[in-house]
Design brief:
This protein is α+β, with helices and mostly antiparallel strands. The chain folds into 3 domains: 157 residues, Beta Polymerase, domain 2; 47 residues, no CATH class; 203 residues, cca-adding enzyme, domain 2, CATH 1.10.3090. It has an 8-stranded mixed β-sheet with strand order 1-10-9-2-3-6-5-4. A two-stranded antiparallel ribbon has the order 7-8. The protein is elongated, with a radius of gyration of 24 Å. The structure holds adenosine-5'-triphosphate and magnesium ion. The site of adenosine-5'-triphosphate has 15 residues, from helix 7.
Length: 432
């Protein structure tokens, strides 16, 4: 396999656009005598003139050797072992070249052709390249001479705006069905087209997405819906019939033309995209609250008919509905708890007068619940007067004070419950 190599003056990847931390890791590996390449989104996005979300590095150093070079390094992932070099919140991912499974222990392929474990080290750069998913994701920037190495015509496909698998799309998706989600995600994010056989391969070989661990699919949901291109990603998921593996309840309702839900989701995703654009915080609690809302309404109406008061009825509905979602994608408790609270606050927001109503402004979840109420109103429910009333109350001096105290309480509970791992995937490349 002979790659095309573009020398420093034949491409526009510049060290000025690579993060300091990524450069540190690249140089330390190089000085340690190892191969050291930037790969994946870092190279792809820089070649497109975009700023990369994160930087991934590939090397011939084993994970243990990488760990030996950095104090701030942690090895993660069982199925696809990786080194994370940690700089505060910034994590640089370092992957070791893999060799063919025939070259040693540590490689396992299941009956269905799915790669269960991929940890045979000692491969070459070419071995590493052929294991990657798309041609545009297998471009390497060599820190030794600042060249870009392209094995599969990735540079050409970037220019042609093509999402193309390395080798047979059908085989690559069979090896790891999450690649279907990745293909549509990059099509959405980059506004690229799926190459010839990709659509067909997705249609024929994605059903084993149902066997992927829910936690890995949750990570994919975050990348699909919370990276600033949620609207396009969601459209792609629907177009390729992939939504059912991530949000089965939602997919079933949209299949039956639930127009209200479609509007609700559309507005919510547009809001999320623009919040990300403006560097405002977003949370999966809100997106999941939106996706499951129609099921919550239906189930809680049933409980209310049997005489349950509105708020307990919502919690009872959540107990019924949420497990069906968790079977598809996980949702860590730090998100599922606030999601339930957003729902449970809805009936309480229908009372906009009196001390009790005023006190709601001090609830740490008030703001999200209020946004949710206004979203429902925008999607066509008759809630406009409540939205306006709450807007006015937030502007009162007393309201401002309560909102501030709610904010600091929310911050406190966040720092107490901060997850050690953040939202990073610990097993991103693995097939399971
Ligand atoms: P971004 O970080 O912008 O979402 P990316 O391409 O960097 O995009 P990552 O998930 O960070 O995506 O993965 C880094 C690289 O690892 C990819 O570019 C690809 O080469 C490889 N990769 C990741 N997941 C897989 C997979 N499931 N199968 C094959 N290769 C993968
Ligand atoms: Mg990346």
């Amino acid at each position: 396999m002979e790659p095309v190599t573009l020398s420093r003056d034949e491409h526009q990847v510049s060290r000025a656009n690579i993060s300091k931390n990524a450069l540190k890791v690249l140089y330390r590996l190089h000085e340690g005598g190892f191969a050291s390449y930037l790969v994946g989104g870092g190279v792809r996005d820089l070649l497109l003139g975009r700023s990369p979300k994160d930087f991934d590095i590939a090397t011939d150093a084993s994970p243990e050797q990488v760990k030996g070079l950095f104090d701030n390094c942690r090895l993660i992932g069982r199925r696809f072992r990786l080194a994370h070099v940690i700089f505060g919140r910034d994590i640089i991912e370092v992957a070791t070249f893999r060799a063919a499974h025939t070259e040693g222990d540590g490689g396992v392929v299941g009956d269905t052709g799915r790669i269960v474990r991929d940890n045979v080290f000692g491969g070459t750069l070419a071995d590493d390249a052929i294991r990657r998913d798309l041609t545009i994701n297998a471009l390497y920037y060599n820190i030794a001479d600042f060249s870009v190495v392209d094995f599969f015509g990735g540079v050409e496909d970037l220019a042609a705006r093509k999402i193309k698998f390395i080798g047979s799309a059908a085989e690559r998706i069979t090896e790891d069905p999450v690649r279907s989600l990745r293909a549509v995600r990059f099509a959405a994010k980059l506004d690229f087209n799926l190459d010839g056989d990709v659509t067909e391969a997705i249609a024929e070989h994605s059903s084993s997405l149902a066997d992927i661990p829910p936690a890995r699919l949750f990570e994919e949901v975050l990348k699909l819906l919370q990276s600033g291109h949620g609207t396009e990603s969601f459209e792609q998921l629907r177009e390729h019939d992939l939504l059912q593996y991530l949000f089965p309840l939602t997919a079933a309702r949209l299949q039956h033309n639930d127009e209200y839900l479609a509007r609700l989701i559309g507005i919510a995703l547009r809001n999320t995209d623009s919040r990300i654009q403006n560097d405002q915080p977003v949370t999966p609690a809100f997106i999941y609250a939106v996706m499951l809302w129609a099921d919550i309404v239906e189930a809680s109406a049933r409980h209310e008919e049997r005489g349950m008061p509105p708020v307990p009825a919502v919690f009872a509905a959540a107990d019924e509905v949420v497990p069906g979602q968790l079977a598809a994608t996980a949702l860590p408790r730090r998100f599922s708890m606030p999601m339930r609270e957003i729902w449970a606050l809805q009936p309480r927001l229908y009372k906009t007068r009196g001390k009790r109503a005023m006190r709601l402004l001090g609830n740490p979840r008030f703001r999200a619940a209020y946004d949710f109420l206004c979203l429902r109103s925008e999607a066509g429910e008759e809630l406009e007067s409540y939205c306006q009333a709450w807007e006015k109350m937030q502007e009162l001096p007393e309201g401002q004070e309560l909102l501030l105290s709610a904010k600091s309480r929310a911050r406190q509970s966040r720092t107490q419950r901060r997850p050690r791992n953040g939202q990073r995937s610990s097993d991103k490349k693995s097939a399971s």
